[in-house]
Amino acid sequence: LFSLAAEAGLPRAAAGSPFWERAFGEYLEGNLLFQKKYSPRAADTKAIAEWQADQCREAERFLASRSTGLLVADITAADVVGHDFGGESEAYREVAQEVDHCLGLLVTALDNGRTAFAIVSDHGHIDRRGGGGHGGSEREVVEVPLVFTGQGIRQARGWQANVVDIAPTLCVLLGLPLPATSQGDVLWHSLALTGDQSGRSKMRADEQRGRLEGILKAEHLRSAAGSGRVLSSVTAIILGLACLGWLLFRSRGPLVLLAGAAAYFLAYRFLFMALGLGYSLSTINTEERLFLFFGKNILSAALGLTAPWGLLRLRLPTVSGEDMFEVGCFVMSVITLQVAWIHYSSGLFMDHVLPDIDLNLRAALDLMQMAAVGVTTAAVVVLLPHGKR
Fold first, then answer.
1. Of residues 184 and 383, more confidently modeled
2. 2-198 placed in CATH 3.30.300.90
């Protein structure tokens, strides 16, 4: 949007976080107002609401002095409180009211009868263990309000859209060509266009969609030819199954081996949940907690091996290093099958399309789990006695 507006000579301005300069600074030409960073994490809801009110008044003055073109206001207080208190908390509701007041202030200041407004949210927040988070596919995270109002907007309600539909729709309102790689649809049912405007815009949309389909087809063919995803995942599945069969064949107690592996996965899952982990990026909450999140997963895997060791102590006369080696290898083989299936169904790497984020997180956690099991198994094998079984 910013690059197309710049090419067309439309004024551009943004008021909000430093993100706008990092992402679009070359198109904003200094027309940026940075909000003051709120230092204390939303411990005081009243204080952060007052902070948002101050930032909103500054944004109002800044944008009102640039009353034409593509103008963006970034209102962030609700996100800060959502992370700290969760999406269903009273604190979240209180700050959301201040955000609503800020929206009213901006619309009143900028509404000159020739302005269209798009009010969007990039995500919602989960409510989990007294905090929030986003990034996963939870309904409360990915389903958010979208409001169009003002010049060129048709009064309607109850319709739905995808986030990728916003940019092409705004391009039509601004009289700009559609972004070349946009995969969204223009929300025609929300627009009140004249016959000429509608005809020109739909012609542009058809041309852009035709070019995009050609690009996507070429990228898909190139990706399918070069990725080798099917071959690598099927090979991993075959090797994993072969390893499982070999371990069951050589084990002195196949049922005990199966029970030991099951005990590990139950223990790992219990620790995984007890430590507040989950197979969604929303459960990480903030970037600062990313390494702690992964560390807890590794710890869960390492401690989980105490369960099969205890079970083997009950079922076998002695527990040797070879016994724990078999359990560790069996567990890693099962995890290999899980990761290989995810790679086959969704892919582990971003190619021409984004893989399933939740599945990719699960695969990453599984790979860390497998590494932790491997290292812990090696240590246990060294410590436990060896001998004729």
1. 184
2. no
